[in-house]
Design brief:
The chain is an alpha+beta fold and 175 residues long. It has a domain at 26-112: Ubiquitin Conjugating Enzyme (Roll), CATH 3.10.110.10. Helix content is 35%, strand content 11%. It has helices spanning 3-17, 74-90, 97-106, 108-111, 123-127, 148-157; strands spanning 24-28, 31-36, 45-50, 61-63. The longest helix has 17 residues, at 74-90. It is elongated, with a radius of gyration of 31 Å. Pfam families: RWD. Residues 136-146, 153-164 have a biased composition (Basic and acidic residues). Residues 131-166 are annotated as: Disordered. This is RWDD4 protein.
Length: 175
C-alpha cells in the first residue's frame, strides 16, 4: 500500500474511534491534537501529532507548543517528547497516532510526577485578594435602604401595624 492509503485508513479509524471525544481534535486531515487529562486538571497537557508525506514509514512530528501547555516546564515537555519518540521508534512503519495518544494517557502520572501543582493561579484567587475571608454564615444581609420620602409614603399608605388597609387594591365597579 502507498503511504497516502495508509494515512487515509488511519484517518478514518481515528475519526471513528474518537467520535464524540471532547479531548480529540482534528486540525487538518494530517494534524491532530489530544488533551491528556481533564480540562481543570493542573497536570493536563496537549499533544499535537502531524503526519509528514511519507508517514507511517517516517516518524510523525510531535509537538507540545500549544498555549494549553504554557504552565508546564520545558524540561517536562522535553521528557514527555523523548518518551513518546521511543514509542514512535518502536512502532515505525505502522499506524501509530492512536497508540501514541493511548500511551500518553496511560503514563500521564509518570510524565507529570515532577510537575508542581501550584503553578496555575485561578482568576478567582486574584480577584478575592483584597476581600477578607468571612464565612457566608457570618455575613450580614443588607436591608433595602429607603429614602425619607419613600418611608413617608409607605407610612401614609399603611396603618399603625405596617399593613395596607383592607381593599387598597380593589376596583370600584359602580361609580
Amino acid at each position: 500500500m502507498a503511504a497516502n492509503e495508509d494515512q487515509e485508513m488511519e484517518l478514518e479509524a481515528l475519526r471513528s474511534i474518537y467520535e464524540g471525544d471532547l479531548c480529540f481534535r482534528e486540525l487538518s486531515p494530517v494534524s491532530f491534537q489530544y488533551r491528556i487529562g481533564e480540562s481543570g486538571d493542573p497536570k493536563a497537557f496537549l499533544i499535537e501529532v502531524s503526519w509528514p508525506e511519507t508517514y507511517p514509514q517516517t516518524a510523525p512530528v510531535i509537538s507540545m507548543d500549544a498555549f494549553f501547555n504554557n504552565t508546564i516546564s520545558s524540561a517536562i515537555k522535553q521528557s514527555i517528547l523523548d518518551k513518546l519518540m521511543v514509542e514512535v521508534e518502536a512502532n515505525l512503519g505502522t499506524a501509530m497516532t492512536y497508540t501514541l495518544f493511548e500511551y500518553a494517557k496511560d503514563n500521564k502520572e509518570l510524565f507529570m510526577e515532577k510537575q508542581p501543582v501550584n503553578t496555575v493561579t485561578s482568576v478567582s484567587n486574584s480577584i478575592a485578594i483584597g476581600t477578607p475571608d468571612v464565612p457566608a454564615s457570618k455575613k450580614k444581609d443588607k436591608k433595602e435602604q429607603l429614602s425619607k420620602t419613600q418611608k413617608r409614603k409607605l407610612a401614609d399608605k399603611t396603618d399603625n401595624k405596617g399593613e395596607l388597609p383592607r381593599g387598597w387594591n380593589w376596583v370600584d365597579v359602580i361609580k
